[in-house]
Give the backbone structure.
Amino acid sequence: MNLILLGAPGAGKGTQAEAICDKLQIPAVSTGNIIRAAIKAGTETGKAVQRYTEQGQLVPDEVVIAMVKERLAQEDCKGGFILDGFPRTLAQAVALDEMGVTIDKVIDIEVSDSEIIRRMSGRRVCGSCGATYHIEYKPSQTEGVCDKCGEPTILRKDDEPDTVLERLQVYHNQTEPLKEYYEKQNKLYPVQGQEEVQDTIALTMKVLEA
Ligand code: ADP
Ligand code: ZN
């Protein structure tokens, strides 16, 4: 099964992707993770895209499309995959169709802007090992310190309040039109994001069985 997870930044696509991964035993392909890894590794591409992510802007289509093309060509994607964070623009959706992969379902995680702002402003990540926390929903045992490695947890630059608003704006302008795109292909399955992660996962699983 080839799946797409659609939804605003902070809607919880990563968590849903993980749950689907476990259930269907197919890899999750997260463009956000691929991009962050490239930045951390200091590759040419990483250097070229860093400023976009820090400003809450999208990385240019041709860069992301090339990354996804390369990833989907790998052996482990042959039996299916979940795209998390791609496509995010109409041009990316068209490029994906042109890659000749058939998408079975597009799961659209719906969360209100106000809830998104709450979630993202509380998000913390370990600067060293990448473990994620939330000051309200998933705090580390000692505030500001990673449970796993003891290094400081930080607010990701793109989770800073101004950047979050910018990212939401970008989502509404550039990504939300994809709902209509996939609706027309009869592939769109909306899932209302719930307060409890497990409840959202349950709704997602229903969509997979439908
Ligand atoms: P979010 O928390 O917004 O879901 P991600 O971790 O998916 O963020 O992505 C982080 C950043 O990487 C985005 O703000 C954007 O700059 C860049 N990015 C990720 N996926 C794409 C994409 N499909 N197209 C363009 N830029 C992307
Ligand atoms: Zn850590």
